[in-house]
Amino acid sequence: MTDPLDPRRNPLDPSSAAPFDPEIDPSLDDTARRVAEALNAYATTVEPSADAYARLATSVAAARTRTEERSSLSERLRRGGALSGGRGGQLGLVASMAAVAALGVGAMVVFQGTAAEEVTSSSFPAQAQVQVPVETETIPSTTQAPPEDSGPVFTSPEAGPDTTVEAQVDIGQTPEQAVRAFLDAVEPDGRADVVTDVVIDGPTAVVVALGADGEPIGVIAELQLVEEELGGGSSTWRVQGATSPLLAVDRPAGENTLTSQAVRVTGTATGVPATDLEVVLISTFDGRTLATVPVVDPSVDPEPADALVDGESPRPAESDDASADPLEVLTTPFSVRVPLANHTRAWLVVRSTTAEPGTATPFAARLVSVEAVPEATAFRVIRIPADDPDGGLNLRAEPGLEAERLVSLPVGSVVLRRAGLPVDTGERVWWPVTAGGVDGWVASAYLGGGDAEGQPGARATAEVTLAAATGGALPVGARPFTPGGTFDVVVDGTVHTVDADSLRMAEGWSAPIEGLDRSLLDVLGPVPAEVFEELAVERGRPFVDPRSADVADGWFGGLPIYTVRVATADGERLHHWVLDGRANGSVTVLGVIVEDVA
Amino acid sequence: MMHLAALAMSSTHEAAAPASSFDLPALYDEHYRSLVKLASFYVDDRETAEDVVQDAFLKLVSGRYSINPGGEGPYLRSAVLNGARTQLRKRKVRRAKQPEPPGLVAAAEDDVVDAAERARIVAGLRKLPSRQAAVIVLRYYLDLSEREIAETLDIAPGSVKSHAHRGLRKLRTQLEASS
C-alpha cells in the first residue's frame, strides 16, 4: 500500500471526487491509480544488495585511478607537443580516440583507457579522452592558455609493434575466447558485438570485421597469444597486440547537438598510390560500415568542407620518414576527413581498394594521426522578430540587442556558425555566426530548429550534417536510390530532380544541383514521436526508436532511414526519411529523399 | 574563420577534476536505493538493475560530463533509464522466443494490490515504447512533476502528457484484455 498520507496516492476512496492525476484524461484515472499502486508495490520487493556500496566504491576508485593514468598520458603527450591544451567550457562532444602508433604494416594501436580492468598497458597506456570544445578562443583561460601550435592529437609514429595492449583472460578459455575477451575489454561499452572472424594461426590471431552480408570488411586487430602456465596444470592466455583506432562520439542527451563532427585521418601510403586507399568506419555494435571515405588526391580535392572550418587545412603527414627509408619506393602522404554521426562507436580501418578485403594486411598505409575536427555548422533563419522594421533577423556586431546591426537576414538565410561559444545576455542567447561573409552575432532562437532557450535540438544543419553524414557511408548497392531513376532533393522548399546516376562519391554521396555546390536536403525540424506513430499506419510497420540498430529500412551515413511508400497520381514514390533520434528527445528528420518508383 | 589552433583539445583531466568533488557516500545514500528500484521496472532481476545503477554512478563520477551542482539526481536518473533500456533491448534479442518471466514474488506485507495484476502491469510497462514507460515510471513511481520529467527525458513538457496518456491507454487495453 502506498503512503496513506499522500493525498495524491490515496484516492482509493471511491467517494473522492478529485481526479487522481489532473493532467491526464479522467477516463484513465483508474488505470493511472492502478499503475501507481502496482509500481510502488513492486518497488517494495526490490532492495539493493548488501555489498552495493562496497562494490560501487571499489569501481569508482578504480575508475579514478584510470582517469589519473590517462591524465598523466595526456601530460606526456602535451609535453611532447602532441596534445594541445585548452579548456573546453562547452562539451560539444566527447570524442574518445585511441592513442595511436603505427606498426610496420600500418596497423594501429589502440588502448581504450576506460577498458575493463584486466587490460593493462605495457608501455603506451592508452587512449586519451579528448573533448572537443566548440571553441576555446573566447574562454577565459584561467588555467592555461592554448599553446600556439596545435599539432595532431596523437602522433607516435616511432612507437613500434611493441606498443601493445595486454589482456589477461580467464583460465580455461580457448584462444578464440581469449581473443573475444580481449575485444570486449578494448571496447568497454560492452558492445563489441561486431561480427568478427578470428583467424588464429599459431601464436597470432587476426580479427577481421565482417559486414552484414558476412563479407570481410577489414582487419581490426592483430594479436599475439601467449599461453602462460599458472601451475597446477592450468594455464591462461595473455593476449596482446594492436587494434584499429576506436572512435567514439557520444553526445549525452541534453547536450547541445549543434556541432557535427569529423576526424581527420592522416597517414602515409607506402607502396601503393594513396588514392588506392579508403578509410572505413566499422560500427562496433553490429559491424555495419558507417562510412567509407576514399582517399582522394590532395592536389585535386580542395577539401571545401574544411575551408568552411578552417582556412588552413591540416597538413598531410610529413613524409620525411620516407627519405629515411631507402626501401620505400613510393610514399604518399594522405589526409582525409571522415565524418562521424552523432553517435558513433566504430573501428577505423584503412584498407586498400585493390587488395583482397579481410586479408591480414589489406592496406599499405601508415597512420600518423587521427585528429578530431569540428564540422562547419550551418543554420537557417526560420523566423524573424515580429517587430523588426527590416523584416529580417539582425546580424549584430556584438552579442546584445544594443549592438550595432550589420545585416538584416531574411527568413531562409543560411548562417554558418563561427568559432566561439554562445553568449547568454539574459534576454537572448547569441551565437557567433557568419552570414554572407560577414561575421557577427545572431539570436539563436530564430535559427532553424531553435527553441526559446536557444538550444536548438534540431540540427538545422542538414545541408552540412547530412552531407557530412553521407560520407560514403552507403556501400554501392545499398544506396537508397534506384540506379537509373531520379530522386528529389528539397532545398529551400524548391524541389530539384536529380538523376540517381549523377550521384558521385566524393566526400559523401552528392549530386550536382544547379546553383548549389553541395547536395542540400531540406530540414523539417524536430518531429514529435507522435507523428511517426501516425506515419506508421502509412508505412504498415511501427516506427520505433531509431537508435535501435535493427529496425531501420536503411542507413544513410550511419543515420537510420525509414521508408514510407506514398501513392501519387503517376504511380508510387518512396519517401526515405533520414532520422536522428537524439535531438532533444524527439525524432528529427534530417532530410527526406524522395524516390520515384517506376 | 576558425583557426585550427583555436580547436584546442582538452584532455580529460581538466574535465575530470570535478570527479573527486562528488560526495559518493552522500550520493549513494540519496539516490542508490531508489535508482535500483527504478531500474527494476525495466530489467528482470535485481543484479542487472544494480549493474545499471552502478554504471550510472561510474559515468557520473567519470568527470566526462559536466553536471551542474544539484544536477546529479536528474543525471543519474536519465543514465539509469538509458542504461536500463539498453539492457532491455539486449534481452529482447536474447529471449525473443522465450516465455515471459514468471510473475514477481509478492511481498508479504502487500495485501492491497493483487500480485498478479502488479506483475501484469510491470510486464505491460516493459512492453511499452521506452519513452512512454519512462514517463509513467517517473510520474507514478517517482512522483516527478511534468517539468521534471521533461527535463529528465529531455523532451518537451507537452510530450510528457501525451506519452503518459498513450502509455496509460495501452496499459488499460492490456489490463482489460487480461482480465
Spell out the key features of this protein.
heterodimer, A: 598 residues, alpha+beta, seven-stranded antiparallel sheet, six-stranded antiparallel sheet, 7 helices, extended, disordered N terminus, B: 179 residues, mainly alpha, 8 helices, 1% strand, globular
Give the overall shape of chain A: extended
Sheet with the most strands of chain A?
7 strands, antiparallel
Radius of gyration of chain B, CA atoms, in whole angstroms: 19 Å
Please give the number of β-strands of chain B: 1
Stretches of chain A where pLDDT falls below 50 for ≥5 residues? 1-17, 72-164, 250-260, 299-329, 358-363, 449-481, 490-494, 503-527, 546-550, 581-586
SS element count, helices of chain B: 8
The SS-based structural class of chain B is mainly alpha
Major sheet size, sense and barrel closure of chain B:
none
What integer is the average pLDDT of chain A?
Answer: 55
Tally of strands of chain A: 31
Question: What distance lies between the first and last C-alpha atoms of chain A, to the nearest angstrom?
Answer: 62 Å
Mean pLDDT of chain B: 71
Spatial separation of the terminal alpha carbons of chain B = 66 Å
Short description:
The complex is a heterodimer of chains A (about 600) and B (about 180). With about 600 residues, chain A is of the alpha+beta class.
Q: How is the topology of this model organized?
A:
The complex is a heterodimer of chains A (598) and B (179).
Chain A: H1 29-43, H2 52-79, E1 94-97, E2 119-121, E3 128-131, E4 165-168, H3 175-186, E5 196-201, E6 204-210, E7 216-231, E8 234-243, E9 246-250, E10 261-270, E11 277-283, E12 289-294, H4 304-309, H5 320-324, E13 331-340, E14 344-352, E15 365-374, E16 378-380, E17 393-396, E18 405-409, E19 414-417, E20 423-424, E21 429-435, E22 438-443, H6 462-469, E23 486-491, E24 494-499, E25 504-505, E26 509-510, E27 525-527, H7 529-539, E28 554-556, E29 559-568, E30 571-580, E31 587-597
Antiparallel strand pairs in A: 1-3, 1-9, 2-4, 4-8, 5-6, 6-7, 7-8, 9-14, 10-13, 10-15, 11-12, 11-14, 16-19, 17-18, 19-21, 20-21, 21-22, 23-24, 23-31, 25-26, 27-31, 28-29, 29-30, 30-31
Chain B: E1 10-11, H1 12-16, H2 24-40, H3 46-61, H4 72-94, H5 115-127, H6 130-140, H7 146-153, H8 157-178
Helix pairs in contact in B: 2-3, 2-4, 3-4, 4-7, 5-8, 6-8, 7-8
